[in-house]
Write a structure and sequence with these properties.
Layout (H helix, E strand, L loop, with lengths): L3 E5 L2 H13 L4 E5 L9 H6 L3 E5 L7 H17 L4 E5 L12 H12 L4 E4 L7 E4 L2 E4 L2 E2 L18 H5 L7 E4 L1 H4 L3 H8 L8 E4 L4 H10 L5 E4 L28 E4 L4 H11 L4 E5 L17 E4 L2 E4 L8 E4 L53 E2 L31
Parallel strand pairs: 1-3, 1-4, 2-3, 4-11, 5-10, 5-11, 9-10, 12-16, 13-16
Antiparallel strand pairs: 6-7, 7-8, 9-17, 13-14, 14-15
Helix pairs in contact: 3-4, 7-8
């Protein structure tokens, strides 16, 4: 019977987390939607698993829909026997001022009767690190990376406190790297401080070892939230027996499908095209005026210099892409918080206002009267980019950075 239940806001993230859990010794099942936990062959597989990951499509869904499907997944996981829970979102914190990371986290905490959790989007293996509450993509701040041009969730701030505060009813606090580097017991004491009882706590992490420390310090929490990297510290009961089930037999045809608009995906497609057979999938724009494809018709593949109908590939893997150039996404919906223009900027300070409240752009909230040891509101100054390859100065309270003035 599974004891660990995870809720992923998209399918790619679900498989990413499942891969990490299998590597750590968890027999893991991925289901698509909460209803599949009790229907079909997945039911038997779930009963034999150590961990279950429910893949949703809630990352850019309307807030009420994202919250509803996430709660349905949580309830299904509890019925399956899970006792600890993991809300998995992207390591680039893909969201808008309306959500969905904050609203879903709030709803999961309320459903579980819990008051606090951690926010850990760091995933050093993919270049995502958090230092002084700022999210880095390799050696760039998030808002200076290609993610600032994301067609659905443009990330125009790297300050996790400012990103999360408009989305949640909870205060948002920071536990810094110096506390993490003092070990699991010190970090747990900081997280358990009474002043953080109702908080979403952003935790700095810049190495795999930091994530292992965070996991060790949060074993008593019913819910953790973060990217797949947080699973590095979740050792499973079958470290020698857990294996990934082969998806196909040797010699079967293979295909790599790509549909992302990110710059990293476009580079990967270009790399694959130079080495593998490739076809560009020609899909009509998903605009209301586009004619619907007739039932039963097959997609068209646009190859170099010709167009052909899809045919069964050989045993050589193919890449099939329908990838936007990133500058003009196909039928990207308008921002969910406005029908007439771009999303408003996130608040320039880490305020503690409830989601939906207005703020004065230059206002600072009153400082807490007695911040807990090792925790603090996020500093307003921009840290200089951490040095490669570790993406951070040397560990410990003596580490320094050159602050930038916030605009």
């Amino acid at each position: 019977m599974p004891t660990l239940g995870a809720i992923a806001d998209d399918f790619t993230g679900a498989t990413d987390l499942a891969t990490m859990l299998v590597a750590r010794g968890h027999r893991t099942v991925v289901t698509v939607g909460p209803e599949s936990l009790s229907e079909g062959p997945e039911g038997t597989a779930v009963r034999d698993a150590d961990a279950v990951v429910v893949a949703l499509k809630s990352r850019t869904a309307p807030v009420d829909e994202a919250v509803g499907t996430s709660l349905a997944a949580l309830r299904a996981l509890r019925r399956a026997g899970c006792e600890r829970f993991y809300f998995k979102y992207c390591s680039t914190f893909d969201s808008t001022p309306a959500g969905n990371i904050g609203p879903v986290t709030d709803a999961l905490l309320a459903e579980l009767g819990e008051r606090r959790t951690v926010v850990v989007p760091a995933f050093p293996a993919t270049g995502r690190t958090v230092y002084k509450g700022r999210l880095f993509v390799h050696d760039e701040l998030l808002d200076e990376s290609p993610m600032r041009h994301h067609p659905l969730t443009p990330m125009r701030d790297s300050h996790l406190g400012r990103l999360l505060t408009p989305q949640t009813r909870h205060p948002v606090r920071l536990v810094g790297l110096d506390t993490v580097r003092q070990g699991g017991e010190t970090l747990r004491a900081a997280l358990d401080a009474p002043e953080l009882a109702d908080s979403l706590v952003v935790v700095d992490a810049v190495t795999d070892e930091d994530l292992v420390t965070v996991c060790a310090a949060t074993t008593h929490l019913a819910l953790v939230t973060g990217a797949a990297g947080l699973a590095l510290g979740l050792s499973g009961p079958h470290p020698d027996a857990a294996r990934a089930t082969p998806a196909s037999r040797p010699g079967d045809p293979g295909v790599v499908l790509s549909g992302s608009a990110s710059s990293a995906t476009r580079a990967q497609v270009a790399h694959a095209r130079a080495r593998l057979p490739h076809r560009k999938l020609d899909i009509p724009p998903c605009a209301p005026t586009s004619p619907a494809r007739s039932p039963g018709s097959s997609p068209t593949y646009a190859g170099p210099g010709r167009t052909s109908r899809a045919s069964r590939p050989s045993s050589t893997p193919w890449t099939i892409s329908a990838t936007s150039n990133g500058r003009r996404p196909v039928a990207a919906p308008p921002p969910r918080n406005s029908s007439n223009g771009p999303s408003p900027p996130v608040p320039p300070r880490w305020s503690r206002q409830a989601r939906g409240a207005s703020s004065s752009p230059g206002a600072r909230p009153p400082a807490p009267s007695s911040p807990p040891s090792g925790s603090a509101p996020c500093p307003s100054a921009r840290p200089s980019p951490p040095a490669s390859p570790g993406h951070v100065p040397k560990a410990g309270p003596t580490a320094t950075t050159t602050p930038w003035t916030s605009p």
